[in-house]
């Protein structure tokens, strides 16, 4: 596939500068794999010179086969030193990446005020650093920091910085609107000039301080830029970076410039929502293209026109970006994800089917209560199986009790569960590292006699999202649990205004799903029953 | 004051089409008064032809003396009818406004598909409706719906619609990008053509479906538009309307076009936050110009440069829009952020200071354990005060116990706390809506005798973030709590591998911060002590 515009994602680096965005090495690996599916061309993973979490990320990515290039980030060498002795540059090489981005000054004011060095030394820092990367065989990208402010202040010096990087062999010259204060017409004019002066492919990196980051990126492309840098959902410092979730469809659907395949574009919405879940950052309901309300129609006139022809109030078809039309206060809202899932499972979910109608109604009600099945495939599957008459319950809850006690600085979490397994009442207790872990342990202890397979599964992820945050400690929460049997991985959901109950729900779904296809072993030997606390019902 | 660009606010009309935005007549009155203070020139209050809430709003506004003009909204007359018998038009006149906006079709496809009438009849509808308003002495504004799509499809018909309105006496011709799908360069080109063809002042009304509404508005102004329509915080259907909170400062601070006075611009942030409160819509933390993070600095290099000169990483001075600079404290920062915070508090944190070194070491350790002070100013302040020898502890924990029990489908959350308040042992219990709410209730109950002020604070936000998610249910969690006393708002943090303990920590910090400057009242009367469960230590 011929690509017109190269997409450089910096969610994992510049995105984490956003307030409240903090990603573990494990989170970063997961997001990188998703970004690769989306088809971005570069994934900037972090700064191996600044923290060990990023070193760990690069180590884990080394053996993965991706289409995207993983890139490391750093600065040009320190003033008055040598590039090959610069720890930050050496770490980039050690990280094993094939491509790296170095940020370097291009605004004279920044050189003298922030770096506190001479204009000549800054040029030498740029030259030496890129020459070093090229000697080590890396693809090298120059992020010219504050380029537009620098150009407005001293165009000749700003251009001299770009020329130095080009001379040293930099493969891309990326113009950064670091402070986000430049207007689209200025961007267009300045990028046009650079494209004439510099004989290297040009990239654009903008920030959203004037709510113009997307427009500025498009203006740069119209002036000749061939690489766009940005983040998923526009995460980033202050007002964020340019939002790739808007830039990619604008370039591809509006300007006819190919970035990713049509199939990949169709995954945009799910990637955006996935990253928002991992980053634990609520996505604005009206986020362009991928938001839940991006194609939602409320006004009565709008709705009736939409029913005549969606083009009347939709600028593109929602399916092109993997989103869907929603008609608010209407029975016609699309449930295509459910229908899709049911078809995958071989269930007849056609509109004439009574069970299908009932389960769709039930799912709507649950979603209204705060459930979200987007990240909880296993809970959705259990719901569908139940609705179609399959028996997936493995036990009936009689009661659980969860106690956390802190006294004399000691903290104890204890859970007591009482369940009914096919007529056997099992009553047991366990401690844990925190209340949910205690529940997990107690429930396994109760089930292991019947389902020894339960010891072969492990919970791999636990997320809590507070819904309606303004209700504070009485707010409803949604818990997502991810589980693996080391062959497959599945996710389940629970919702309650009690975090313990929500966790319990997700936990029970996870175990039900795991054991769905397991045969229950005969009840324990008579002589062991008493010792295990099992009585007949 | 000479105004270059007229600001037309439609928060109260088009803004309420946004998902989750619903305003009572009382809310609308409050917001209108704020908008008038901000200095907008037109306030579109609603559609008196469509609902009684809007009629009530116009009734209440009739006697208020505002600088802004209150305007009513409606459509051109129905097809095949007479303007002076059109209920919607008559209601506009009855509402007592001096100015009104009528939306009318200008895209041939919409005339035939949505209206299902002829192109000629639509022109007559436009002419008759504006002629009617002008005969009744109103200032009349034509919102040409889907003008840009219409122009691209059939430019001559689109222009004919504008000419009809102008001929009938319309005072403003407003070009609407109703579906939000047009690019800035297209807007510029089309508005330039209209400005040549139509001899009336031109306005622009855009939607944000491509994340380009602000850029499109600026492009139209550059092409000759003299009125900008939009909403506070960009509320509106689907992805929202053009955001006036970004447009006004861009026009005034970046393009040198006067919209409001400097003093009024300085109220922008407080107006934006006020409207967000009334509309009960959470404002994105990184919203340009007015968001809480719009001038927040996190990266260590950024922070050290900001301390040298704020211009290094700020495109405008935050005070110009009534916002303020914030230095976030986080893992990505060096020490300059903490130093800035301490300086704000008047503490001597110079590098020679032993206490300063110790507290910085402590903060680093805590951050390594998962604490994050970037969103927890109050916890950081308590930490600094403690380190500098201030006494901010209000009680000593003896023990707490937290019980969640589910049995027969009933769920109960109960907390028992035992604390030592200056030698008095207080032992009490409370139920709650979930475990953290129970702890909150029990702790207040224990403290209210000594600090009655505790009943005047409310928790407004509760967030849980799971750290190291792969440890699943045994993972460490970070809890953030936001609290208000209805004058100030503060945030606190707690970290533990036990969600209950992390919540407890954040809760205790919140109460400590609230009560820091309160005097403890004498212990309860002797005769009440027993009843309250207080014993001497």
Automatic annotation (TrEMBL), chains A, B:
<dbReference type="InterPro" id="IPR013709">
    <property type="entry name" value="2-isopropylmalate_synth_dimer"/>
</dbReference>
<dbReference type="InterPro" id="IPR005675">
    <property type="entry name" value="Citramal_synthase"/>
</dbReference>
<dbReference type="GO" id="GO:0009098">
    <property type="term" value="P:L-leucine biosynthetic process"/>
</dbReference>
<dbReference type="InterPro" id="IPR002034">
    <property type="entry name" value="AIPM/Hcit_synth_CS"/>
</dbReference>
<dbReference type="Pfam" id="PF22617">
    <property type="entry name" value="HCS_D2"/>
</dbReference>
<keyword id="KW-0028">Amino-acid biosynthesis</keyword>
<dbReference type="GO" id="GO:0003852">
    <property type="term" value="F:2-isopropylmalate synthase activity"/>
</dbReference>
<dbReference type="InterPro" id="IPR036230">
    <property type="entry name" value="LeuA_allosteric_dom_sf"/>
</dbReference>
<comment type="similarity">
    <text>Belongs to the alpha-IPM synthase/homocitrate synthase family.</text>
</comment>
<keyword id="KW-0100">Branched-chain amino acid biosynthesis</keyword>
<dbReference type="InterPro" id="IPR054691">
    <property type="entry name" value="LeuA/HCS_post-cat"/>
</dbReference>
<dbReference type="InterPro" id="IPR000891">
    <property type="entry name" value="PYR_CT"/>
</dbReference>
<protein>
    <recommendedName>
        <fullName>Citramalate synthase</fullName>
        <ecNumber>2.3.3.21</ecNumber>
    </recommendedName>
</protein>
<dbReference type="Pfam" id="PF08502">
    <property type="entry name" value="LeuA_dimer"/>
</dbReference>
<comment type="pathway">
    <text>Amino-acid biosynthesis; L-isoleucine biosynthesis; 2-oxobutanoate from pyruvate: step 1/3.</text>
</comment>
<dbReference type="Pfam" id="PF00682">
    <property type="entry name" value="HMGL-like"/>
</dbReference>
<feature type="domain" description="Pyruvate carboxyltransferase">
    <location>
        <begin position="5"/>
        <end position="266"/>
    </location>
</feature>
<keyword id="KW-0808">Transferase</keyword>
<dbReference type="InterPro" id="IPR013785">
    <property type="entry name" value="Aldolase_TIM"/>
</dbReference>
<keyword id="KW-0412">Isoleucine biosynthesis</keyword>
<dbReference type="GO" id="GO:0043714">
    <property type="term" value="F:(R)-citramalate synthase activity"/>
</dbReference>
<dbReference type="GO" id="GO:0009097">
    <property type="term" value="P:isoleucine biosynthetic process"/>
</dbReference>
């Amino acid at each position: 596939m011929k690509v017109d515009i190269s997409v450089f994602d910096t969610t994992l680096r510049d995105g984490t500068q956003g307030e409240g965005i903090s990603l573990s090495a494990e989170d970063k690996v997961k997001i990188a794999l998703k970004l690769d599916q989306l088809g971005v061309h570069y994934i900037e993973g972090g700064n191996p010179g600044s923290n060990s979490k990023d070193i760990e990320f690069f180590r884990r990515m080394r053996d993965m086969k991706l289409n995207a290039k993983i890139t490391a980030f750093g600065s040009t060498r320190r003033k008055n030193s040598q590039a090959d002795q610069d720890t930050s540059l050496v770490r980039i090489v050690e990280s094993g990446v094939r491509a790296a981005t170095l940020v370097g000054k291009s605004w004279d004011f920044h050189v003298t005020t922030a770096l506190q060095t001479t204009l000549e030394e800054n040029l030498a820092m740029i030259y030496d650093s890129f020459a070093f990367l090229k000697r080590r065989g890396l693809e090298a990208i120059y992020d010219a920091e504050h380029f537009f402010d620098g150009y407005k202040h001293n165009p000749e010096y700003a251009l001299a910085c770009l020329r130095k990087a080009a001379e040293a062999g930099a493969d891309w010259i990326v113009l950064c609107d670091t402070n986000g204060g430049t207007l689209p017409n200025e961007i267009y004019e300045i990028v046009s000039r650079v494209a004439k002066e510099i004989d290297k492919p040009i990239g654009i990196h903008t920030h959203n301080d004037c709510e113009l980051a997307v427009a500025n990126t498009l203006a740069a492309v119209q002036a000749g830029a061939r690489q766009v840098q940005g983040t998923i959902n526009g995460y980033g410092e202050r007002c964020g970076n340019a939002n790739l979730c808007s830039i990619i469809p604008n370039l591809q659907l509006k300007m006819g410039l190919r970035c990713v395949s049509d199939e990949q574009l169709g995954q945009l919405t799910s990637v955006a929502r996935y990253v928002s879940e991992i980053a634990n950052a609520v996505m604005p309901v009206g986020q362009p293209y991928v938001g839940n309300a991006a194609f939602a129609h409320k006004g009565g006139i709008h709705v009736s026109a939409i029913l005549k022809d969606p083009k009347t109030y939709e600028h593109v078809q929602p399916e092109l970006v993997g989103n869907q039309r929603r008609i608010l206060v209407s029975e016609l809202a699309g449930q295509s994800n459910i229908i899709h899932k049911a078809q995958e499972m071989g269930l007849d979910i056609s509109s004439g089917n009574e069970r299908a109608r009932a389960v769709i109604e039930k799912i709507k009600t649950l979603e209204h209560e705060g459930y979200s099945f987007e990240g909880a495939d296993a809970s959705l599957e259990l719901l569908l199986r139940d609705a179609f008459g399959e028996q997936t319950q493995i036990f009936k809850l009689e009661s659980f009790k969860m106690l956390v006690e802190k006294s004399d600085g000691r903290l104890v979490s204890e859970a007591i569960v009482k369940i009914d397994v096919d007529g056997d009442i099992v009553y047991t207790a366990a401690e844990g590292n925190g209340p949910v872990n205690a529940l997990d342990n107690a429930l396994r202890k109760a089930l292991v006699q019947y389902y020894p397979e339960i010891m072969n599964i492990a919970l791999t992820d636990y997320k809590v999202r507070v819904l309606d945050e303004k209700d504070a400690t009485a707010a409803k929460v949604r818990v997502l649990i991810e589980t693996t049997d080391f062959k497959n991985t599945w996710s389940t959901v629970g919702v309650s205004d009690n975090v313990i109950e929500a966790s319990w729900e997700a936990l029970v779904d996870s175990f039900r799903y795991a054991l769905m296809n397991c045969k229950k072993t005969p009840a324990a030997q008579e002589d062991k029953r008493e010792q295990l606390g099992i009585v007949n019902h």
